[in-house]
Amino acid sequence: MSSYSDILYEVVDNVATITINRPERRNAFRAETLDELIDAFRAAEADREVGVIVLTGAGDKAFCAGGDIHWEEASDESGAIQMARRTTILSLVMRGCGKPIIARVRGFAVGGGNELQMLCDLTVASEDSRFGQSGPKMGSVPVWWGTQLLPRMVGEKKAREIIFLCEQYTAREALEMGLINKVVPVEELDTTVRAWCDRMLTLSPQALRVAKISLNYESDQLWPSVLHGNQMISFIHGTEEFHEGTRAFLEKRPPQFGKFRK
């Protein structure tokens, strides 16, 4: 793409920075956002001047709040399948890219936003950041690498807590459970991210490439679970139960899921 509407892309001193630029929606992604992220990551991977990639969100409120609820509320089963295709491609591009990807997190990284930071190789967060999953609260499920990677990062029981209870966790709590790598004061976030980039830029790029792909080997075998989850969740999206979750969020009221118990 020659220009972007939902993201910003720049390369400075061998570091490509990709910024989700929808602060009015807490950097929630829609179809266009996903398409542009795919394009930007491919551009960064192809650029021989780029050694490290940084993914972040515009503003000081959120890294990414997941899927845009306004977009999802208008979605049906077909829309869910189209979204799954885009997220699937994005995750393949990110995990298959041989260059290290750092998530620079300030603010909320919840729902699909938390899954997005997990897809990055490293995560540096400011002290005011918050993490968590919100799928069941919204009538959805974090099957885009959430149910697959969370148990490997934080342990089986903790992963179930995060997904089943839909609570949010401070950056310090996320660090302690192994969900992220480092927490710093807000004023040190950019310098710390840049220092990590500069450190990796001094290392062998091919060694880093092989290390990343080798580290991914075991979790790559979870790929069938992602595909399976995407197909299963398409049967939820567009249902009345799903829309009860999205409408409750938009109407700022508790969802009434009790009538859907079977």
From TrEMBL:
SUPFAM superfamilies from the UniProt entry: ClpP/crotonase (SSF52096)
Annotated transmembrane regions: none
InterPro entries attached to this UniProt entry: ClpP/crotonase-like_dom_sf, Enoyl-CoA_hyd/isom_CS, Enoyl-CoA_hydra/iso, Enoyl-CoA_hydra_C
CDD domains xrefs: crotonase-like
Pfam families named among the record's database cross-references: ECH_1
Assigned protein family: Belongs to the enoyl-CoA hydratase/isomerase family.
Protein name in UniProt: Dihydroxynaphthoic acid synthetase
The organism of origin for this protein: Micromonospora echinospora (Micromonospora purpurea)
